[in-house]
Each structure stands twice: as C-alpha cells, then as structure tokens.
Amino acid sequence: MGEGSLNNFVHTMIDEDIKNNKYQGRVHTRFPPEPNGYLHIGHAKSICLNFGTAKKYGGLCNLRFDDTNPSKEETEFVDSIMEDVKWLGFDWDDRLFYASDYFEQLYQFAVKLIQKGKAYVCELSPEKVREYRGTLKEPGKESPFRNRSIEENLTLFEKMRKGEFQDGSKVLRAKIDMSSGNLNMRDPVLYRIQKSEHHRTGNTWCIYPMYDFAHGQSDSIEGITHSVCTLEFEDHRPLYEWFLKELEIYAPRQIEFARLNLTYTVLSKRKLRALVEGKFVSGWNDPRMPTLSGIRRRGYTPEAIRNFCDMIGVSKSNSTVDFAMLEYCVREDLNKKAHRVMAVLDPIKVVITNYPEGQTELLDAENNPEDASMGSRKIPFSREIYIERDDFMENPPKKFHRLFPGGEVRLKFAYYIQCQEIVKNADGSIKEILCTYDPETKGGWSSDGRKVKGTIHWVSAVDALKAEARLYDLLFTKQNPDEVEEGKEFTDFLNPQSLEIKTIYVENTLKNAEIGQRYQFERKAYFCVDVESRKDALVFNRVVNLKDSWIKIQGKENP
Q1: What is the domain class of 9-259 according to CATH?
Q2: Looking at residue 356, what DSSP letter applies?
Q3: Element (H, E) at 239
C-alpha cells in the first residue's frame, strides 16, 4: 500500500477532501499502537495503509504510542514496535510521539468538560457501572452521582489526581445520554485511578485517561487529518467527534476499514500473550507466531508483506484471507532473490563405485535461474554422496522417475548415475546404494543425446555440512481457531506437527551463511538462517514450501 498502489475507499474519501480543500489539502496520518504486546501481521496492514497513504499524497505519518495503561505497557514492546515499523520499510522521521506526552493537556481537557457540566466524578463500582449501562434493548440508568455540582466535581477530580482515593473507588465520566442507542455514548469513563508506575512518566500520575478519551485529542494535538482505524471503532466515532466538538478543538476525520483476519491464525493480543505465557511457543518471536518479529525470524521478507497488504486491499466489510495467499507472496518474492543451494533433509548414502576413491572435483552450479546476474558457485562432488531417501524406491510404481534398481537418474549439475546394488542392514533397512556414473555426462547432460526423466539433488558426503532444520507448519489445525466450541479452548486446536526438527546435510558453500540469509533448498522449500545459528552449528528455518496451494485455490497454473 505504498506509492503507486491501487486506490481504495480510504483514498477515495481523501481525494474528496482534497478536492474540497478540507485541511487545506493536507494529508497527515498516524500509526497509533498500544505498547502492550508485539505487533502482528494484522498491524502490518494498518502500517502499510497509514504510511503508504501519507507517501502517496506527499503527506506525513506519525508513529504515536497510545500508552495510557501502565499496568500492561513495557519499554520492550515500544522498542519492538519501532523495529517492526522500520523493518517493513517505513520511517516516521522526527514524528515519534506518545499519548503520555499529552497527559497534562488531556487532564486540562477533562477539567474543561467538567466546567461545561459535561463530565462528573462517579463512585459506582466497575460492576455497577456496567449494570447501569443497560443493554442494546434496554436504556441505561443514570448514576446517582451524575448531578453533582461543577465545583464538587472539580474538587474530587483534583483529589483523584493527588492520589487521595484508592484504585477503582472513583472514575471521571462524560455526561452524554444514558438512553442513547449507541452504548459508547452512555456516559463513558474518561479517567480511572490506577496507582501504577508508567514506563515513561514514572509515578507522576495516578490517574490515567481511557483510550477513547486520549485517542481523538491526541490526533487533534498532532494535527492529524485522517484518523484511519479498524472497523471495531466505527461505533466509537460518535464519541470521538463528541469530545472534539465539546472541547472546541481541531477535528480530524475518523475513517474505519476492515481488519485483517487470516485462516489458521489468531490475531488477538490476549490470545497471543496466552500462547507465550503458557509456553505453547518459545516466545513472541517464535517463527510460528503471526507477530512481525516471528515472521521476520522465520524468513518472510518486508517486500512480501507489503505486497500481501496490496493484494488483500482495503474494504469496509470483514472477511478472512487464506493463509496460502500470504505464503504465495513470500514465495513470489523469494523466487526472485533467494540463492539456490542443495540440501538433503532425509539422507541416504550413495556410493559411486566407479568414481576414483579420494577424488573430489568442483562443479559449476547457477545461483538463481531467474537472475543470471546472481552468478554461480562451485560445489564439490565425490565418490560418496547423500540423496533424499524418498528419491529412491526398491519397488517403484510405473511413473516413478527417480532412482531405483537398474534405473538411471540425473544428479543436478553433476552426472547420470545408475543403481547397481542395494546394501542393507541386518534389520532389512537400506544402508547404502551402490551406483555407477557416466563420466561423459558431466554437468548433468548426455553427449550422446540419451535422456533420463528424473533429476534429483544431492550433497557430497565428504564435504557436506551437518545442520539443523526446523520445519515449521501452521500453528493451528482449525481454519478458524477463534470460533467458539463448547468445552474447548483455542489452544485445543494447536497443531502438534507445527514444528519438526531434523538433522540435515547442506552443501559446504553455506559454511559462511549469515543469520537472516534466505535460500531455496532445491526441490524442497525456502529456508532462512535462524538467529540461534552459529558457524559450527547451522540452524535453518523452513520459510515456506515450494508447492503453491494458493495458486491452485485460484485455479491458476503454478508459475
């Protein structure tokens, strides 16, 4: 959703505002995360929309932390959010703000509402506040404290600020309409007492504004023109506008869009936190998590995420995107930029009996057939090699075009080999396969025009590097883990096969592989070097398989 992306209804509304010279033609957006967790793929849609919109119109986009709940906020989350936004390719320049920057101003706004008779201090318990609120079918009931005098409310609110009351004993509420059809307008809470240390302001404050009160006023203070947020805030818009009107301050325009829903995934911060705290995953950056730190570690690229956000677009109605579509975008991006290498994930040894013992030769291998500029490399070939176990069958079906007794197959970049004999262990399992090679087929092609149907990958057993492969899969077995089932928790649908760890062999050209580098393991999948990898103990994360299920879903050919 960067410069040049297709228009969406948000941009159509902005075009109309520019045409009418609203905000003097300015476009100023913001991305306003709460620092109470790590960002996930759903936030990426909002980041791309807000920063991309500003870029499209030559405007500005702020990064603002809505840090109004000190009990759940940590500097760790602030740092991770800034890292994620930059990783996606966006920069807020010098426009980094915090709602806590405006605590004094927000307090004075609240005082102004009290002075206008539009806010009051209420002593109902949280349970009673909810009870008095009413339902969608029944109007609410006024608080017995609703008609206190302005002077009494000002005195009580000042005492709340000074810490003279206990947590939960009093709140400041707006005085709007307890019979409103919109529950958000039934005297919402503006401030609560919370004697918790704030990650930025320390113990300066013991009362904190609610999100609904802080958000719109922060937008106003920063001169935001278009406050773009997700659809669940649509019912909050009348309240957003009521505050701005009653305070008689600059009014941005709130626009809501549908949030991202993804199959086989949960995007609730509460549920993601439960996965981490319940140790169902190794942490916020576990490569199975939909957090941006998790998918970054797994090996997804920022370009792929931005392309994904472009493809799903922006709409007003909720829908669910197939996870395979995200994988398609990752695969499309990596296909262009990832070096091809050979790795054997389930090795079986092949001994080439007519190849000279002790000899090793270097063969040419292209790094990426999609881009000749990426060059080539030299890979070692020797008498003993490893191939994939499923590339050999003792009793193959008719259309099996890989290695079998008497059969011939092409070793990619190397030679034709033919199976002559099978050596077995005492238990009947295959120990090794004895083959011969044709020295006239160097490079994997026959000089006499002889053709073989099968081409398989391999690594030299003498030179290969032993490594660890972490084969990640979907975290959940259920397409919609959020769907409630009686007697079930969402964690009951965790996929027990979401991670398989294997010892593998990779070609020795990877000996200097660096953390974060991505490769295509020929005929297998894309892999990324994990953060736990070391020079003497390489660890690779499976990013995405080569097989493209989303293309099949769309009825298109696999590119």
Answers
A1: alpha beta
A2: P
A3: helix 237-247
- Concatenating the DSSP letter of every residue in 67-112 gives ---TTT--HHHHHHHHHHHHHTT---TT-EEEGGGGHHHHHHHHHH
Give the residue among 494, 451, 472, 453 at the shortest CA–CA distance from 539: 472
Cα–Cα distance for residue pair 302/89, rounded to 1 Å = 7
Strands lying side by side in the sheet with 119-122: 119-122, 171-174, 189-193, 207-209
Distance CA(60)–CA(53), nearest Å, equals 9
Q: Are 62 and 15 in contact (CB under 8 A)?
A: no
Residue 527 tokens read as 């892999």
Interval 217-275: pLDDT, tens: 999 999 999 999 999 999 999 999 999 999 999 999 999 999 999 999 999 999 999 99
Please name the fold of domain 343-457: Ribosomal Protein L25; Chain P (2.40.240)
Bridge partners (DSSP) of residue 191 are: 172, 209
Query: In a 3-state reduction of DSSP, which class is residue 204?
Result: coil
The single-letter code of the amino acid at 270 is R
Kindly tell me the sign of the dihedral angle through the C-alpha atoms of 7, 11, 13, 14: negative
> The tokens 């008497």 sit on which residue?
406
Sign of the Cα torsion 297, 299, 305, 308 reads: negative
DSSP of 111-152: HHHHHTT-EEEE---HHHHHHHH--SSS-----TTTT--HHH
Residue keyed to tokens 């949960």 = 266
- Asked whether the beta carbons of 315 and 258 are under 8 A apart, the reply is yes
pLDDT greater than 70 at residue 392: yes
Contact present, 148 and 172 (Cβ < 8 Å) = no
3-class state of residue 172 by DSSP: strand
- Six token digits for residue 290: 């939909």
**Phi first, then psi: what are they for 340, rounded to 5°?**
-85, 135
Does the pLDDT value for residue 556 go beyond 50? no
- State mean pLDDT over 333-341: 96
Instruction: Give the residue numbers marked as catalytic.
Output: 34, 259, 269
**How many Cβ atoms from other residues are within 10 Å of residue 359's Cβ?**
10
Give the SS3 label for residue 525. strand
Question: What three-state secondary structure class fits 29?
Answer: strand
Distance, CA of 358 to CA of 373 (rounded, Å): 34
Domain ranges of the chain: 9-259, 269-339+470-553, 343-457
Q: Looking at domain 269-339+470-553, which CATH architecture does it have?
A: Orthogonal Bundle (1.10)
Answer yes or no: same fold for 9-259 and 343-457.
Answer: no
User: Are the CB atoms for 31 and 62 separated by under 8 Å?
Assistant: yes
